[in-house]
Structures are given as structure tokens and as C-alpha cells.
Specification:
Length: 347
């Protein structure tokens, strides 16, 4: 694959400190026509960069370091994918598992899973994260004594206005609503949070492009719940459907809505599938369920007409071609070997 004809893809992986086999952030190149993925090598040696994000305008890559003393790392990348370190910042919590940049590029939000908190880091005009401007802590517990003994912030989801923020907490069955003061970098609650049924274990949500709804993956009860946004920004739970029609213990993970809003995609660990839901009806309708070739698909990403699924325990990235009419993914080529991949980020 000639460099001029390929696109950069960064892969996050668990390293031995987190029970994985990876070394850090992996660089790969994607064929935009055929979808093939070629691994170049380790771009940055760093501890358990389990989730990645990029700046909306600048060539800056961010990663959580999912460890007991949580951190976030930042690099500048060039046209060849080489990473130059910019900063490493303490997130103030344990085991950060997700991060996101505000659409205006002014702040970085980090979900600390282990301690159930959210860190806010201001970004300068070069995209470099500063020290924390806030650390928002959740409290409480859920119905599952093993998985919900305390709060577990699992996702931070900024709104298009860069000031609103949704926080998905697996430990207390909650989707919280917050607003960012851009001048101070501090968060404040806005209205009542959405409390899901006990034991749902919400992991991630995916916003619909119409801006009026979203969908939440229930990791603990194996469901997908529709969220409806009210005119005042309030959240209401809508339809609730099973994540999979396969037997066995299903643990939903990655979730995303296709760019045109017609289809919802959900990765299911335990059964090793991606479920496709049709969103053209009032409620999400199960359309198809495709095997990924492994049992633990953790996260996936769209790029062009292809879907890239990171299977942590199968140590592979699986490439799928998306049918433009049905939205169903079909395997494309052979699996790409990567040690303990947890996140795919085309840039």
C-alpha cells in the first residue's frame, strides 16, 4: 500500500500492566478503496492506552492510560504517523477508560472508571492538555454487588455546543447531564439525570445525527435503551430491546449510529457479534447479527464504507465491508493480528 494512497489509523491496546500483550499505541495504514489494514508498528510505548481520541482540528492524539493512578497522554502526529510527545497529565482518578475532546477543541474530558469521576483538562491553542481544571465525582452504588459496589464513570460525551456533557456511569445506572463553564473549566449539573432500571450497567451511548435521540448499551443486562432528548435538554428513556438474539452471557460494548442515521451498530462480548438495528421504525428493530471471529469485540470504528472491529482477546482487528442498502457488515479479507487491541481510531 503506497503511503500517498493510504490513511492513518491508530490502535489502542492493553499492555502487560493491564493484563494485555500490547506495547502501547500501534500505527496502521488503511486502504481507502479495499479497506485493507496494514500494521506498521508501535508508534508510542505507553501504559494501557485503552481508548484514543484526536483533536477536531489539530494533528494531536490523546490516550487514556488505564492504570491505578490514572493519566492521559498527548502526542502530535505527522503525515507518516510518527508521534511526538506533548504532555502526560494526572486525571485524579483510577483506571480512566474513555476520553473525548469538546468540538471546539478547548477541553478534554476523561472518565475515571475505577473511582467514578470525570476529569476536565483545558487544551491550549496547540492542543496540549493542561493540569485539571475540575474533577467531578459521582457517588452511590447499584444493584450488582460485584460490578456496582460504587460509581464507575464509563463514557464522557460532549454535545455539539461544546458546553453540554453527558456522563454514562455503569456503577450507578445513570446518565448525568452537566454544563461546562469554559472560562473556569468547571462542570455543574443541569437538571435531573436519567436513571435507568437497576442493574442495567450503562456503558456507552451513541447520539443520533438528528440530535433528538441516543442509544445506550447496557453492559450488565444485555440491552439497548433509546434515550429521547426533550426540548429543555431533559432525558427520557424510550424503547428497550435485547442486544443480541444469541444464547450465552452477552456484554454489550461499543455502540454507534451510522452517518446517515438509518442503522445502529452494537458490539457484543461473550458471543462475539455485531448486531445491526434498523432505526427507520419508531423503535430499534433487530436487523441482523454478524459474527466477528472472536469472542470479545470491545470497540469498533467506521471509515469510508468499512467497519473495523477491535477484538481484545482474539488479538485481532476484523475488517468488514458495509452493504450500502442494508447496512449489514460482511467480512472483508483476513483478520489483522494486533496484541490486545481495545480501540480503533482512523484519523
Amino acid at each position: 500500500m503506497a503511503r500517498a494512497e493510504s490513511e492513518l489509523v491508530f490502535l489502542g491496546c492493553y499492555t502487560p500492566q493491564g493484563g494485555g500483550r500490547g506495547e502501547g499505541v500501534v500505527l496502521a495504514r488503511r486502504d481507502p478503496v479495499g479497506g485493507g489494514l496494514t500494521v506498521v508498528g508501535t508508534a508510542a510505548v505507553t501504559e494501557s492506552p485503552s481508548y484514543l481520541a484526536r483533536h477536531p482540528r489539530l494533528p494531536v492524539l490523546y490516550a487514556v492510560n488505564e492504570r491505578r493512578d490514572g493519566a492521559v497522554s498527548a502526542w502530535r502526529f505527522d503525515a507518516d504517523g510518527a508521534l511526538t510527545p506533548l504532555a502526560v497529565r494526572d486525571t485524579g482518578g483510577e483506571e480512566p477508560c474513555h476520553l473525548a475532546v469538546s468540538p471546539d477543541g478547548g477541553h478534554l474530558f476523561v472518565a475515571n472508571y475505577g473511582s467514578g469521576s470525570v476529569a476536565v483538562h483545558p487544551l491550549d491553542d496547540q492542543g496540549v492538555p493542561g493540569e485539571r481544571s475540575d474533577l467531578l465525582r459521582h457517588a452511590g452504588h447499584g444493584a450488582d454487588p460485584d460490578r456496582q459496589a460504587g460509581p464507575h464513570a464509563h463514557q464522557v460525551c460532549p454535545g455539539a455546543d461544546s458546553a453540554s456533557l453527558l456522563v454514562v456511569d455503569l456503577g450507578i445506572d445513570l446518565v448525568g447531564r452537566y454544563r461546562l463553564d469554559r472560562a473556569t473549566g468547571r462542570l455543574s449539573a443541569t437538571g435531573e439525570p436519567l436513571r435507568l432500571p437497576a442493574g442495567t450497567g450503562p456503558r456507552h451511548l451513541a447520539r443520533h445525527p438528528d440530535g433528538r435521540r441516543a442509544y445506550v448499551a447496557g453492559e450488565l443486562d444485555g440491552t439497548v435503551t433509546e434515550i429521547v432528548f426533550g426540548a429543555d435538554g431533559g432525558l427520557r428513556a424510550g424503547a428497550r430491546v435485547p442486544a443480541s438474539d444469541r444464547g450465552g452471557h452477552v456484554q454489550p460494548s461499543g455502540i454507534a449510529v451510522g452517518a446517515d442515521g438509518r442503522f445502529l451498530y452494537l458490539a457484543n462480548r461473550g458471543v462475539g457479534t455485531v448486531t445491526v438495528f434498523d432505526l427507520t421504525d419508531v423503535d430499534p428493530r433487530h436487523l441482523d447479527e454478524v459474527e466477528t471471529g472472536g469472542e470479545w469485540p470491545r470497540q469498533f470504528a467506521f471509515a469510508g464504507s468499512h467497519l473495523y472491529v477491535a477484538d481484545e482477546r482474539a488479538h485481532q482487528i476484523r475488517v468488514f465491508a458495509l452493504d450500502p442498502s442494508t447496512g449489514v457488515p460482511r467480512p472483508c479479507g483476513e483478520p489483522v493480528e494486533v496484541p490486545s487491541p481495545t480501540c480503533v481510531l482512523p484519523v
